[in-house]
Design goal:
alpha+beta; five-stranded mixed β-sheet
Length: about 600
């Protein structure tokens, strides 16, 4: 057997359970897999009639690396982590880089607070969720404010109130900050909130009905009316959010396939409440079985998340028993993966599958529309081939202050947000957009020339001939050639749809019809660059203004600045604070508090 045949690598592979990695000639990982018997599993790639996908992968393999584990369950966890980290091209890939939000109740406080929370759940208090989106959390918090007046304000705001805020005036808070509700009554509202979030809404209704009857018997008709309205609101929420016949935690997972694209919909049920759903589009090589896609999705999705006791799926995943074992060990309770369900659960599963199909059709339609616009751009600019990568730069500043340049990237499928970059521009004449562009292009394309990023086929600039010349000069100085430059400027009357396209070396601009698909794509790319630039500029400007007012005060270093802003919820809260309030912060003496107070009232008039 010749050394170029990867089968000679099987000699060193053990029989133990573990993870294997297929590598190409450049050392790039092509595929990551797990096995109960490594040698038998890896050998199967060379001894069977392969699919087209496997055949193509095997033709690229020049090396195989293995990691031995104690059990197949450990191998599954390691496989999931490696796939997330390495993103091999022949694996099913789930690009889910967002942590999921929770509702946090600060039970350690005398008057607990409800708040939106995202991050590690190792701190004090109770966490409810996860929720599929930030919008689902905020919707629930708004509902809770109508039902139970538990505070949702920042601690720094709560501690420094001398009179009730607007939330008290509109009956969304009991006013604990100024003693308008006693601790016992507040604790009762907190207990009802917890019951609601735990899915025990029927108990809450019973409690409210009892309280309403007692208030009515005591002739407290105004309070009885308030309780009556809360009961009605809670009944409406139950009809809309609660899953009939469910009282526990489970996730409903449905996978659909169309046009070579997969979609997985996940419905989150906690305490019998439907917290919402979210769609995912895992990337899978062609001819990948649906059971494989489902198994890979579950393994990667629940690697770093709490797993509910039940997962209801429309397709039984590969290695179902192994997944159940791994999830049960991680969760500390039994986890079941069930695909055969009846009655209400079957209807929910069918609804999830229907949502997956609708999302697929929408994504495929969007892809088809993008492909048409890309083809139109190819024709309008007389390009040799369809552009595989496009970049666009834009500049944002306020009268020259805190200039930021943005670079957005589009490829054959649309925006490639992981490749977006911003550049803080320094050392130029304020307001000099040409110099700002030149600096940003030089920094970006020096890295491209060093091989950090691929060279784009098209480079769009938000501007006309002047900006285009500055960009051309910057690229020449860096030594980059072969990029088609296009300037996008507004028309004479600066109305949308009258944009002009300036091509390097052409004296007359190209003007495409406003209904042109090519023009729509260019406008999309240009607008995305503008959005990304102005967002970065506003963030930089806000950060500078927050810190600048404190930086000029002698004795207030970075740590004290951070502590002051944290205690008072930002610059505006600090500017409103009294000397006594400022002196109450750890490390701030009365004399220093007076200096801070004086400096703010000189620098920020009108507060």
């Amino acid at each position: 057997m010749c050394e170029s045949d990867p089968r000679h690598l099987l000699k060193g592979i053990p029989e133990n359970p573990g993870v294997y990695r297929m590598l190409d000639a450049d050392g790039t990982v092509l595929y990551v897999g797990k096995a109960k018997h490594l040698k038998r599993r890896v050998g199967s790639y060379f001894g069977r009639v392969p699919t087209r996908r496997i055949q193509r992968m095997v033709s690229l393999i020049v090396d195989i690396e293995v990691t031995v584990t104690r059990t197949e369950a450990e191998a599954l966890l390691l496989e999931s982590n490696l796939i997330k980290a390495l993103q091999p091209r022949f694996n099913v890939l789930l690009r889910d880089d967002k942590s999921y939000p929770y509702i946090h109740l600060t039970t350690q406080d005398a008057f607990p607070r409800l708040a939106f929370y995202r991050g590690s759940r190792k701190g004090a208090g109770r966490f409810f969720g996860p929720y599929p989106s930030a919008g689902a959390v905020r919707e629930t918090l708004q509902l809770l404010q109508k039902l139970f007046p538990v505070r949702q304000c920042e601690d720094s705001f709560f501690r420094h109130r001398s009179r009730p805020c607007l939330q008290y005036q509109i009956k969304r808070c009991g006013g604990p900050c100024v003693g308008l509700i006693d601790a016992a009554e507040y604790a009762q509202d907190v207990a009802s909130t917890v019951k609601f979030l735990e899915g025990r809404a029927d108990e809450v209704v019973d409690d409210l009905v009892g309280a309403m009857e007692r208030a009515s018997a005591a002739l407290e008709f105004e309070r009885a009316a308030i309780l009556r309205d809360r009961i009605a609101t809670l009944r409406q929420i139950q009809q809309r959010q609660y899953v009939h016949g469910e009282g526990g935690d489970l996730d409903i997972v449905a996978c659909a396939l169309e046009g070579g694209l997969h979609c997985v919909q996940v419905f989150f049920i906690r305490g019998g409440r439907n917290l919402g759903n979210r769609g995912f589009f895992p990337q899978a090589p062609e001819d990948t079985e649906m059971a494989t896609v489902m198994a890979c999705f579950l393994a990667q999705f629940y690697t770093d998340k709490n797993v509910p006791p039940e997962l209801i799926v429309n397709i039984e995943p590969e290695d179902c028993e192994l997944l159940e074992q791994v999830f049960s060990e991680r969760a500390g309770h039994r986890v079941q993966i069930r695909s055969k369900v009846r009655t209400e659960r079957a209807r929910w599963l069918e609804m999830a599958r229907g949502n997956a199909e609708v999302a697929l059709k929408s994504r495929l339609g969007s892809r088809a529309g993008y492909a048409r616009r890309l083809a139109a751009l190819h024709e309008a600019l007389a390009l040799e081939s369809l552009p595989a990568r496009m970049e666009c730069f834009d500049i944002s500043h306020t009268q020259g202050e805190r200039t930021v340049a943005s670079c957005v990237v589009f490829d054959g499928e649309g925006p490639r947000k992981s490749d977006y970059r911003r550049f803080n521009i320094e050392g130029i004449t304020p307001g000099d957009d040409y110099a700002a562009l030149s600096q940003a292009l030089t920094r970006r394309y020096t890295r491209i020339k060093d091989g950090e990023y691929p060279l784009p086929d098209l480079l769009f600039i938000d501007g006309g001939r002047g900006q285009l010349s500055a960009v051309d000069m910057a690229l020449r100085e860096v030594g980059v050639a072969g990029v088609r430059l296009v300037g996008v400027s507004k028309g004479p009357d600066r109305r949308p749809g009258t944009e002009q396209l300036w091509l390097l070396g052409h004296e007359v601009p190209v003007i495409l019809p406003s209904h042109s698909p090519a023009m729509h794509l260019i406008e999309q790319i240009r607008d995305e660059a503008h959005r990304f630039a102005i967002t970065g500029h506003r963030q930089r400007r806000a950060k500078a203004r927050i810190t600048s007012s404190l930086e000029g005060i002698r004795g207030v270093g970075p740590k004290r600045r951070q502590e002051l802003l944290k205690q008072f919820g930002g610059l505006r809260g600090l500017a409103r604070a009294r000397v006594e309030d400022i002196a109450g912060v750890d490390g701030i003496s009365r004399q220093l508090a007076q200096q801070i107070y004086d400096a703010f009232h000189q620098e920020v008039p009108g507060y």
